[in-house]
Design brief:
Number of strands: 9
Order of helices and strands: EEEHEEHEHEHHHHHEHEH
Structural class: alpha/beta
Largest sheet: 9 strands, mixed
Helix content: 25-40%
Radius of gyration: 18 Å
Oligomer: single chain
Distance between the termini: 32 Å
């Protein structure tokens, strides 16, 4: 693996290249992106592609990628320009891409802005609130996560986030009538460390979950777009957004093993099934039918 820093006007973007460039056999690099996850989150998945050149990166303002623009928000269009700059810096043409969660939103913005950067995009559970019939209620649930975080810190915010993202079905009056989630029940810290800059729990990433997909741009792009969902995700928030996004593109959602973080190992908490996930990803990428 080699690590590189791409200096842009707004941030120094750090990315990793696992394997040779140009690639062996002429297959495009496989770019894996997340949001707000760093490159390290793809360690287990990338290990199952020893025959491919895999690219990972830290989004601006996260991990090793230091911002210089004075901003703290995370905007998909800006993140997409960073990914585009990395693709250009690789100098080997378009890439295949696996994108998870907020990274899937960035990837959809990338395809809209730079449709020739990506040959095949597997967008896994993009958390797109505007896709939902109960979008206003979902925004209210999102705001409650932010409010819990602002009031009591990381543990309370993360407990509220888990409660939101594990709720099955639409956000009804029953959901909002629940008592505040207890961080201790989720193994979260109960003490407040005073920080309020978490990109997942604050409102800094609201532009990610509020992103509106441009179906016309997606339809006219040469990119093959596959919307994916975890087999265990069920009818939770990201399961519903993934299904709705697939329907917007006139397709059925493609099922992958495990849950929202199904490609992760135990290093990052709730372990998925990275070996099975990688096999499924390989099947989907190789299927040109």
């Amino acid at each position: 693996m080699s690590t590189h820093t791409l200096e842009t006007a707004g941030a120094d973007i750090v990315y990793d290249v696992h394997g040779p460039l140009p690639t062996a056999g002429g297959r495009p690099p496989l770019f894996m992106i997340g949001q707000p996850m760093e490159a390290a989150g793809f360690r287990a998945l990338a290990a199952h592609f020893p025959d491919r050149t895999v690219i990972t990166y830290d989004p601006r303002g996260i991990g090793r990628s230091v911002r210089k623009d004075g901003r703290v928000d995370h905007v998909p269009a800006i993140q997409a320009e960073d990914v585009h700059a990395v693709v250009e810096a690789l100098g080997v043409g378009p890439v295949e891409m696996f994108a998870s969660s907020g990274g899937a939103v960035t990837a959809l913005a990338l395809v809209a802005a730079h449709p020739r950067d990506v040959t095949t995009l597997v967008a896994h559970e993009p958390p797109l609130i505007p896709m939902l019939p109960d979008a206003a209620a979902a925004e209210r649930a999102r705001a409650a996560v932010r409010d819990a975080y602002e009031a009591k810190g990381f543990g309370a915010g993360m407990a509220a986030f888990v409660a939101m993202t594990s709720w099955q079905g639409e956000f009804t009056a029953e959901y909002f009538a629940q008592p505040a989630a207890d961080p201790a029940l989720f193994g979260m810290p109960t003490e407040d460390d005073g920080s309020r800059d978490d990109p997942l729990l604050s409102d800094r990433s609201w532009s990610v979950s509020s992103y509106r997909v441009d179906p016309t741009a997606a339809a006219t792009a040469p990119t093959r777009i596959i919307i994916a969902v975890g087999a265990e995700t069920g009818n939770t928030f990201t399961g519903r957004t993934a299904t709705a996004t697939a329907e917007l593109f006139g397709q059925r959602v493609t099922v992958f093993p495990s849950h929202h973080g199904g490609f992760l190992d135990g290093e990052f908490g709730y372990a998925g099934e990275p070996a099975k996930f990688a096999r499924r990803l390989r099947e989907v990428l190789d299927d040109q039918g």
